Amino acid sequence: MLQIDELTHVYANGVKALDNVTLAIPKGMFGLLGPNGAGKSSLMRCIATLQAPSEGQIHFDDIDVVKTPETLRRILGYLPQDFGVYPRISAYDMLDHMAILKGLSEPRARKAEVERLLEQTNLYSVRKKALAGFSGGMRQRFGIAQALLGDPRLIIVDEPTAGLDPEERNRFLNLLSEIGENVVVILSTHIVEDVTDLCPAMAILAGGRIVKTGAPTALVRELDGKIWIKTVDKADLAELSKTHQVISTRLLGGRTLAHSLRHRPRRRLYAPSRRPGGRLFLHAPRLASRGLARCSPRSSALSCAIS
Amino acid sequence: MFAKIVGFELRYQLKNPVFWVGVILFFLLTFGLTTSDQISIGSNANVHVNSPFAMAQAELAFSLFFMFVSTAFVANVVVRDDETGYGPIIRATQVRKFDYLFGRFIGAFIAVAVAFLAVPLATFVGTLMPWVDPDKLGAFRLGDYFYTYCVIALPGLFLTSAGFFALATATRSMMGTYVGLVAILVTYTIVTTLASKPEYMTAMAYLDPMGFGAVDLVTRYWTVAEKNTLLMPVLGPILWNRALWFTAACILLAVAYVSFQFETRGKKARKKDALAAGAPAPDPRPTVFARAVPRFDAAAARAQLQARTRLDMAQVFKSPAFFVLLFLGLFNAGGGMWFTDGGYGVDIYPVSRRMIDVLRGAFAFIPVIVAIYYAGELVWRERDRGTEEIIDAAPVPDWVFVAPKILAIALVFVALLLVSIVAAVLVQLIKGYSNLELGKYLWWYLTPLTVSLTLFAALAVFVQSLVPHKFLGWGVMVIYIVAQIIAVSYGFEHGLYRFGGGGLIGPIAPLSDMNGQGREGEAGWWFRAYWAAIALVLAVLTYALWRRGKETRLTPRLRRLPRRLIGPAGVILALGVVATAGLGGFIFLNTNVWNVYHTDKDDDRWAADYEKALLRYQTLPQPKITDVTLNVALYPDYPRAVVSGVYVIQNKTNAPIRELHVRFDHYLKVVGLSVEGAWAKQTFERFNYRIFAFDTPMAPGEKRRLSFQTVLSQKGFTNSRNMTHIVHNGTFVNDMEITPLLGMDQTMLLTDRSKRRKYGLKPAELRMPKLEDDSARQFNLMRKDSDWVNSDITVSTAADQTPMAPGYKTSDVTAGGRRTARFVTDAPINHFFSIQSARYAIRHELYKGVDLSVLYHPGHPWNVDRMLAALRAGLDYDQANFSPYQFHQARILEFPAFQGSFAQSFANTIPYSEDIGFIYDSRDASKIDMVTYVTAHELGHQWWAHQVIGARMQGVTMLDETLAQYSALMAMEKLYGRDQIRKFLKYELDSYLRSRGGEAIEEEPLDRVEDQAYIHYRKGSLVMYRLKDVIGEDKVNAALRALLRQYAFKGAPYPKSTDLVTLFRQEAGPDPIKQQLITDLFEKITLYDLRTTRAVSKKRADGRYDVTLTVSAKKHYADGKGRETDAAMNEPVDIGLFAQEPGKKNFTAKDVILLQRMPIKSGVSTFTFTTDRAPSFAGVDPYNTMIDRNSDENLTRVGG
Fold first, then answer.
1. Three-class SS string for B424-447?
2. CA A84, CA B385: separation in Å to the nearest integer?
3. In whole angstroms, what is the distance from residue A90 CA to residue B414 CA?
């Protein structure tokens, strides 16, 4: 299992992306939930050996990830949040190239493995097409194919469903669910459903800190009965905000659907986002869509999109 | 809309890497051209680098090469949308075809024009560089830059842009356009080269689309002053040329417009697509094998290394910029290889050595650019493409990322160089030359260059791993290249700190079929080994600093550097450091301990100090040498010459001599030196100069002995300038390099004007004594310290070589692994000896009592018979017309190309460079036979230098070089007839007229020539031939016989040019026209302007023809600076009527209908002749015997 101890990472521009993160991640699918800018990718990169943390320890079984990243890479499968591809290269060739890099040096076995993964990710029929021309979903599936190369024991997938249509997203999650239970899979996402659908365990990361860990269902249950919903005119929203803690709104049939906490929580669930005008809101699971709202930097609370 | 499209296109093109590659490349080329003497276009030694003329030349040449870049821009406009598949989207918008096509074209063309600004910009930046000789710079005039850019460069760029835009619309393919580009360029080059004869000059001024012809026509005979100040007049050929081709460009654009299909592509493509779609996808499901298990052993690492290398190479090979560079290099080198012209339109066998020479000079800069550019592209690729996270998280050791960058570039080099070799071999085969000597390509070119370039690539990759952005890395490399160029001019020459050990492409060994790469080749490998060790260190550091993952800043990477060096990396680094130290120490031992390390700058300073310290002794009376005994032991493989010798010296002055000044070559080691009855009074150690005082002064007429022992040697190798006169095979030492000179004179001094000024030497020019200075007649051209001497030279060498020196060979013994030969003279000869030794093949022939022999490299047998024939012809003519040959042996010896491209005449011995004569291809009988010409010229020197030698003063070379030209011309005329001579003289005329434009100081009349080659050779031929034509061959020869009678083998006073002119005057008789002609030919700079303005023939009643010619004639005298004054002309000139045009291939003697000498006066005159046949051509001075700047206007077609 993966053990993260007191991990802190500060970027060159002074931004503290991770702040004393301690986390134990057991075998199986593990969800890491958090809005954009929460430090998910920083944490993923630290685990994936792509950046050395400023402080702290990461151990995977008996591998000290910070000191011997090269050992971890041998058992690592990593799908970054965003990745490019080489120009003028086909899916097969690129996957084959990755397979070599992953240590599959025996050509026949490598060919079989590459074809198996292409098959598994449903890319076999387009294997000769240039990667650069792939759609977002195809590209993500290719990403998971390369992450699965060489039977990794630690798999990190960073925001894999962002930008996928529902069909592609389903397909992708099915793919993930097929991964064996004996490996550690960290799924980082800002979409609650990704986590609740797949992960028996999760952690919530915000502002560089772990704010909550547990089973998704349990965490959702904590909010049971705490969220109220009311449909108001847009003009009345300001009034409502004075009396209630409105955590999210959306439009429904031209009127505004406002969610609010019934009680002021004992402690703030989330640190305010650093982005101006943005605040994070958790939705009642039974109401409307279950998701973590995300505010774009320019949007006001009123126009927050709900995923 | 239009403007928006233009703007978008321009912005798009400015982001294109090709734009930046083009800008960098052409900036560097121009910068090098401006600031370095090593890069040049044409030979414009005295023309300011920022003069309108020089800038026009540069911009013409670069605009030709720029096609490769501009095509990338304009073809991209057409091809891009099809390649990206974006075409249909664009075409579905409202944009009109006109806006779409021309908006983009204009945008791309602006990008071309902006990129080409790199050329004038680099010229300007170059002129600001402090190391540029101020003599090479004119005042800054913005207008000149503007004019050349707008009038010379832009129209050509527009034409080529439009042309290749049209081609791209037709082919719809980048590759197709480039193939077309190469085809057009090759055609263009062939056509312009074939048309580069004086008679096509006017036509080419209009027809040459790039404008070379127009500029050349306008400026060909400009003087230096004109080139430095004048702008080419727009009115006239340049304007017409520009107008013509601008129209052509517009037509091409119209063609592009019409041929561009705005709608989706035609049926062919669709059919193919349908086929692909219709066929059932053969989609065999993968067979399931046992699951692959990752392995991390050596085999896996090897596989990873291979995969990365393949990927990196593929990136280079698939990129358009690579092909742009490759084609550019091939084109540049292809021209050099194809047109291996030996001058005078002569063919040269494309021997591999010359091919390699061309490739090293004209192609090898391409891999340098590839290294710089692709080091940036490859090192930054993962980051540029956004693949770094998945790639860097893979279980791959860092060195597997680093090594392939260097390895892939190295393999790309191999591919590039192999392509260039294939091109060279193709040239050889097409020219019908099949002795390919592929081993030479491998060992002289491919291997050393690949290694040197790979070291350079390691540097470029290292730089890219340090800097925060690839543009910065490129910038650093560009600065590095500039620094390389500068360093040498500041005296930083040592290979220990110049990366790679030499220039950009590493140490360049001088090549010779006789001597291979010689010692420089061996030294080069030591430097390569040393720099390979450093490159290894750099590679380890690159590895240790490698950006992996998200950390790209330098400081954290530096901080973790020590930790990353623990383990094998550190061991390799240590090995690299140790090897660097060891090899560096060994190199230092060779270059600085065993040998003297000296730079060009050191040598210049030495020469300047030498002059300041010692030139004051030059007027001191000194004895002269009468007898020379020399014993030279050559050790070709060491290399060493151990010399001992004795001079007999005699006081030939009228006063006692108290001191003897003895000097030796700068680096010659003097082991022993003694002068009979004298003691060493003063020694200038630094100058190798000694003053002896006689115990009792040498009385007039008294003789004494001087004996000396010297050693000329090199141990190991030197930094540069490895000994090239004593080599493994092909030693050629001049005696002045190994023996003492007596008294001070002007040899060994700085002659370059700017250097003289820089070191404060006065006068600014070392000039010969004036023709009126009769005191100069005491000394001959060869040596100040000798008249004619008796010589006795013994040369010993390795047993398998043939030793040779002037004189009769009296013994030749091989014993104890050494071969020793002795050469003595039976009568005094010039004190001017060559010592040679090589493994020769020898061809002998006894001809009229003279033993003729050619000693040649066994691989160069082609022209040996021709040389023997030329010797026979020369002997026949010279003996019959001048005097008997003074020896009974005459020999030609080949020497390696790197010692020079010349032939030289010593007493009965003619060293002849491997680079000329021996490799001329004389099979085409219609071409000038240069082998015979050179051989006859050198044989002529046996009379004109070795029987009669002039006093060292103005006009002296008229007495040897001009007369040797005459001997050669006459021998040639006897062999081939007048027509060959006419062809030859046409080249001589053009060469003379062009070269006088390059004169820096002062053009002299022939009788005052100061060792000016264009006067004593080129004008000399024209003068002597015209003189012979007008006063008669017998009269000329009679005068020459008289010269020999008076001066042959006589000591001081020596003859001067006017002595010969006087003899000509005597022979010519009192005819004032002939006397005036002699004045004009020898004592003045005379230029004619003859033209036939009209020629008409009319059939008469009796069937014959009346032909009327209108001729205009002018004569000018020019002064030394080129200022002309009109002169009255009144002299006989040939007038000819012909059935065919003279000088053309099918012209024969039968085509001469009439050739008559008529007196012609200044102004317009009309002549009428009656002939039996109707002439097609008519003209005045039809064979161009006169010095006329418009020699192609002499003839005209006859009208009815």
1. HHHHHHHCCCCCCCHHHHHHHHHH
2. 5
3. 27
Taking contacts as CB-CB distances below 8 angstroms, the residues of chain A near B397 are 70
Q: What is the mean pLDDT of residues B384-396?
A: 88
A50 to B548: CB separation less than 8 angstroms, yes or no: yes
Torsion of CA A286, A288, A291, A292, to 10 degrees: -110
Q: How far is CA B561 from the centre of its chain?
A: 48
B202 pLDDT above the threshold of 60: yes
The alpha helices in B16-51, defined as continuous H runs, are 17-35
Q: In the prediction, which pLDDT does B263 show?
A: 60
Q: In sequence order, what are the residues at sequence separation of 6 or more whose Cβ sits closer than 8 angstroms to the Cβ of residue B408?
A: B308, B309, B312, B313, B316, B378
Residues 6+ apart with CB under 8 A from B194: none
Q: Could you confirm whether domain B840-942 is CATH 1.10.390.10?
A: yes
| CB-CB under 8 Å, B391 with A112 | no
Nearest to residue B326, comparing CAs of B286, B369, B356? B369
- The residues pairing with A245 across neighbouring beta strands, listed in sequence order, are A261
Closest residue in B to A115 (Cα–Cα): B286
Q: Do A105 and B387 touch (CB under 8 A)?
A: no
Please tell me the predicted confidence (pLDDT) of residue B284. Answer: 52
How does residue B657 score in pLDDT terms, banded at 50, 70 and 90? very high
Q: Rounded to an integer, what distance in angstroms lies between the CA atom of residue A89 and that of residue B559?
A: 37
Longest CA span, chain A: 70
B285 touches chain A (CB under 8 A): yes
Report the pLDDT averaged over residues B394-416. 92
CA–CA separation, A98 vs A139, rounded Å? Answer: 15
Contact B898, B510 (CB under 8 A): yes
Residue B878 has, within 13 A of its CA and on its CB side, a CA count of: 29
CATH 3.40.50.300 fits A2-215, yes or no: yes
pLDDT confidence tier of residue A232, bands split at 50, 70 and 90? confident
Give the mutation candidate from B283, B316, B390 for the A interface (greatest A CB count, under 10 A). B390
Helix, strand, or coil here: A269? coil
Q: What is the pTM of this model?
A: 0.82
Q: Which residues contact B75 (CB under 8 A, 6 or more apart)?
A: B164, B165, B167, B168, B174, B177, B178
Pairing of β B850-856 and β B889-895: parallel
Judging by beta carbons within 10 Å of its beta carbon (0-12, 13-18, 19+), is residue B390 exposed, middle or buried?
A: buried
Q: Which of B281, B290, B385 sits opposite A125 (nearest CB)?
A: B281
First to last CA, chain B: 60
Residues of A in contact with B395 (CB under 8 A): 70, 73-74, 76, 101-103, 150
Whether residue B94 has pLDDT greater than 80: no
When the candidates are 3.30.540.10, 1.20.272.10, 2.30.30.240, 2.60.40.1730, the CATH number that belongs to B615-769+782-839 is 2.60.40.1730
The number of beta carbons lying within 10 Å of the beta carbon of residue B339 is 14
Please enumerate in sequence order all residues whose Cβ is within 8 A of that of B1006, keeping only pairs 6 or more positions apart, or say none.
B955, B958, B962, B1015, B1016, B1019, B1020, B1023, B1057, B1081, B1082, B1083
Domain ranges of chain B: 2-263, 299-594, 615-769+782-839, 840-942, 954-1083, 1086-1200
Q: How many CB atoms lie within 10 A of CB B424?
A: 25
User: Per-domain residue ranges for chain A?
Assistant: 2-215, 227-303
More confident residue, B340 or B470: B470
CA distance A30 to A196: 10
Contact present, A105 and B306 (Cβ < 8 Å): no
Q: Indicate whether this complex's ipTM tops 0.90.
A: no
Looking at domain B1086-1200, what is its CATH homologous superfamily?
Answer: Aminopeptidase N, middle-beta domain (2.60.40.1840)
